[in-house]
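Ticket #4471: structure export looks truncated?
Reporter: QA, pipeline team
Priority: medium

Steps to reproduce: submit the single chain below to the structure queue and open the exported record.
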Amino acid sequence: MIVVFIGILGLCIGSFVCATVWRLHEQSQLSGKKKLSAADKSYQKELSIRTGRSMCSHCKHPLAARDLIPLFSWLYLRGKCRYCHQPIGWLEPLAEAATALLFVASYVFWPMPWSGQGIFDFIVWLVLLAGFVALSIYDFKWFLLPDKIVLPLTVITAAKVLIDATVFHGGVSGLMGSVWGALVIGGMFYGLFAFSNGRWIGGGDVKIAIMLGLLAASPLKALFVIFFSSVLGMLVSLPLMLRGKASRSSHIPFGPFLLLATVLVVLFGDTIVHAYEVLFVIN
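Actual output as written to the record:
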């Protein structure tokens, strides 16, 4: 029952994340205009995350409750708006399902005890996962990791690290592990960004590196984040290049691979490090 509840919660959070990402992008488009018309100002109010009603991204028709059931509404409507019949797209329902799967997997494979710090970190982790999904959607659709999402997630992560070190007596060693993790990923990514003048990785990747390094919580795990994200990116880009759908100069968003690699390291990092030590260090 707990797994079912967490899965349903993940679907609902995923649906909210998809709507929020679209609203943030529309708001950014309006803010880029030098002068807003009366229609723009009215539309801006409708885009409010707190008070605005859900609407179709194409015809802007308000959506009824039956249109907002996560994943199932999309399946029932066959991926089209009920009112204008324009395609809704596959990324949104995929993101809803992915959020549910990530929530369930996090519960099943959570590496910490279910008491005190473990429960606190799990709740914070679910919040961060929602942010990860939001960043992935944004990066896939618009090749951007916006500060409006990255900065709050970084603040939440930093607060979690400090609380773990003080309230839950993680001590200086735990705090320094996270700091070194952030320095490893952040320093490496900044070096790549500066050396390539932004051609190899984007500025957004550098910004989220600090957050991901803090979550990795050690320099070795931070290196595993870089390694796994590179492998995941290669597994996706190579088939596209072989089929002629991408070239060496194609722009492929790297943020989602970084975020997925961080999920793997957070959930299975201790097991991975132990296997690494047995294979390479002890022998």
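Status: closed, not a bug. The export was complete when the record was re-opened. Leaving a note from the reviewer for reference: The chain has a mean pLDDT of 90.
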